[in-house]
Amino acid sequence: MSDPAESSTKNVASVRPVRVDAPEFDPNSIWTALTQTAGIGVCVTDHEGRLIYVNDTAMVLFSDVPGLDYTGKFIHDFHPPEYVKERLAMIARVLAEGKPLAIRHIYHGKQIHSTVWPIRDSKPPYHRVVVVSRTTSGLLKTELDKSIETVRTEFIDYGPLSILTQREVEVAVLLGHGMSVPKVAKLLQRSPKTIERHKSAITQKLGLHGQAELVMIISEMGLDLDDAKLKRLPATE
Question: What's phi and psi for 121, nearest 5 deg?
Fold first, then answer.
């Protein structure tokens, strides 16, 4: 028989609201912990896309190069116009609604999850957000906050897979999910011989030694067939 006191404690715990009020702390300590934690990208920007702060991890995630000088720069100084337009629209939405927005995107061949948080400034400058990002390698699906709406970008940067044609990307994704050539052929309504031809081209272009390596690449990038329908961002040098 269960202990009534224990049962009562569990009931209280189950209805106890989650604490969201911040305890007393030194803001500099919290900022240092956030921006210097390995694998966490942090960027502060505003409604115009001005880069106010970018840590090294964010630079690598979104520019693929560490140590860039972002002083006085804007998002459009580092990214293509269509990417900038979409991101500014997301930032504007976060500022207008006053609540965070999660973004799932693939950039430089890496699947990145970002959460855009509004900064509730009590004095100027206003209209700023902080973007916290990390790759799927450091993120479990169970860790995603379901209370925050997640949006999916219309654009994609395949990184090393950019050398593949659109059809080759589709075939690579399906083979990378462990499907056999006959199943891929049936799904894409092509002959097995055509799929074998695509598979050979993919293997040669990417320098692979077997389907297992392709599975690893696709799995690490988190690519699915819907991603192959996204608009490609222009290749960057």
Answer: -70, 140
Which residues, given as ranges, of the chain have pLDDT below 70?
1-23, 136-146, 235-237
Do 152 and 168 belong together in one domain? no
Question: Are 59 and 111 in a shared domain?
Answer: yes
Whole-number pLDDT of residue 197: 96
In the prediction, which pLDDT does 21 show? 67
Task: Report the SS3 class of residue 212.
Answer: helix
Question: What number of H helices and E strands is found in the chain?
Answer: 8, 8
Same-domain status, 96 and 201: no
Peptide bond between residue 125 and the one before it cis (omega within 30 degrees of 0): yes
Do 99 and 179 share a domain, yes or no?
no
Which amino acid, 68? Answer: L
Give the span between the Cα atoms of 128 and 117, in whole angstroms. 9
CA gap 119, 99 in Å, rounded: 10
Distance CA 54, CA 35 (A): 9
> How much is the pTM?
0.76
Res 171: pLDDT: 96
